[in-house]
């Protein structure tokens, strides 16, 4: 046992030296190295980790951060918790070489978990770590992160030993917002107001005294969808509004569009949601089209849809989908009509996102040949200790089979 302990210490020391020397050898990573040197616990954790991919912001990437942003203020104030959380979100479980990235995103998890807390709230609250996407944009590898942020790899595949890959990026990977922050900033004000009016017992970022939630998927109707059923909303009582909104929520299952197929899942309200991939590659939930997929949140993923879902339609028959019809002709509430003003007040958005073209054009549904990450850790190998090659599903944490949640994890958890 003593020999094993000594061997482990020697290996850890060598790994730390390798990582530090690799970063020190790259002139354009000197800011990252300097920041890391102020976080010895994080350096120790990274140095003992294996089978990880580090997306390393260059000096120019750090310089590009606005001083009044959350990241800029964390660095300026030497907020070690926020900085540690930020850098942990740049380290991902598994090896992702540049030549394995495809035009369909793969959703991977970082080391940012709920242990990093500020003002009583974690920066991220996913089981297994915060999600980001990795996708090919032309010849460039791009990381998709919170607030619709895209970080482009400027130099790829710098190896540290045989189990750590470093990619340089031109912009730091961003924290993901809460649901209410995202909908307010993106101008989805009718949903935001409906959520506030419904006063659900779940904290979506609006009330820390409510029940916390993680690992959820939510389908957010756009403003036009709510406007189309104004007459229904006028006459709806609180219980009806709560039922409608919770029908848009899938609990305990992170479902990215790239994992969708012709399946069904139970909603938080209780009735099933029916998912369909049409012949044209579009993705649907009941008779609502997903018009903008895979919005990364701090504890879930959101998909924007063009209709308000009706729990009375469950189980929905996918044969009734009308892919060619306009959203106004697919209203799920019979005889619903617009009204001059909805029965709940909206707030002024804090900001408006400018959606990058890549996020409007990448394939929302998985293509053939999903990227594989080679995972080799105490949990990632087989019983003989040999490395395992674990496919990353491009999609959900839990598999969907015939409407039943299969509990098998798709990605091995890294132990450090």
Automatic annotation (TrEMBL):
SUPFAM superfamilies: FAS1 domain. Residues 16-173, 175-309 form the FAS1 domain. Pfam families: Fasciclin. Keywords: Signal. It comes from the Eukaryota. Gene3D superfamilies: FAS1 domain (2.30.180.10). Residues 1-15 form the signal peptide. PANTHER family: FI19380P1 (PTHR10900:SF77), PERIOSTIN-RELATED (PTHR10900). This is FAS1 domain-containing protein. It comes from Emericellopsis atlantica.
């Amino acid at each position: 046992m003593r020999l094993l302990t000594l061997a482990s210490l020697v290996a850890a020391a060598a790994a730390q030296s390798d990582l530090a020397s690799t970063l020190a050898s790259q002139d354009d990573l000197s800011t990252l190295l300097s920041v890391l040197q102020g976080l010895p616990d994080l350096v120790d954790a990274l140095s003992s980790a294996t089978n990880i991919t580090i997306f390393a912001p260059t000096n120019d990437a750090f310089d590009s951060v606005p001083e009044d942003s959350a990241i800029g203020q964390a660095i300026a104030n030497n907020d070690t918790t926020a900085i540690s959380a930020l850098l942990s979100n740049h380290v991902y479980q598994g090896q992702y070489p540049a030549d394995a990235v495809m035009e369909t995103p793969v959703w991977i998890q970082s080391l940012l978990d709920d242990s990093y807390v500020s003002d009583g709230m974690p920066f991220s609250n996913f089981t297994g770590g915060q999600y980001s996407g990795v996708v090919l944009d032309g010849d460039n590898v791009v990381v998709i992160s919170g607030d619709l942020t895209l970080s482009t790899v400027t130099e790829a595949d710098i190896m540290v030993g045989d189990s750590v890959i470093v990619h340089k990026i031109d912009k730091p990977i961003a924290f993901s917002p809460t649901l209410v922050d995202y909908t307010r900033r993106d101008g989805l004000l009718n949903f935001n107001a409906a959520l506030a009016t419904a006063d659900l017992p779940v904290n979506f970022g609006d009330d820390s005294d409510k029940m916390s939630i993680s690992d959820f998927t939510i389908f957010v109707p756009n403003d036009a969808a709510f406007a189309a059923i104004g007459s229904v909303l006028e006459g709806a009582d609180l219980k009806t509004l709560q039922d409608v909104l919770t029908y848009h929520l899938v609990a305990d299952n992170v479902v990215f569009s790239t994992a969708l197929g012709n399946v069904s899942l139970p909603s938080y309200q209780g009735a099933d949601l029916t998912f369909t991939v049409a012949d044209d590659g579009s993705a649907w939930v009941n008779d609502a089209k997903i018009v903008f997929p895979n919005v990364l949140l701090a504890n879930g993923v959101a998909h924007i849809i063009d209709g308000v879902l009706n729990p009375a339609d469950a189980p929905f028959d996918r044969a009734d989908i009308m892919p060619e019809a306009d959203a106004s002709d697919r209203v799920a509430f019979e005889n619903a009509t617009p009204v001059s003003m909805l029965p709940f007040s909206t707030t002024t958005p804090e900001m408006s996102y400018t959606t990058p073209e890549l996020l409007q054009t990448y394939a929302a549904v998985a293509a053939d040949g999903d990227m594989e990450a080679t995972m080799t850790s105490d949990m990632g190998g087989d019983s003989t200790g040999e490395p395992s090659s674990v496919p990353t599903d491009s999609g959900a944490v839990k598999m969907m089979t015939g409407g039943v949640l299969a509990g098998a994890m798709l990605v091995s958890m890294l132990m450090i």
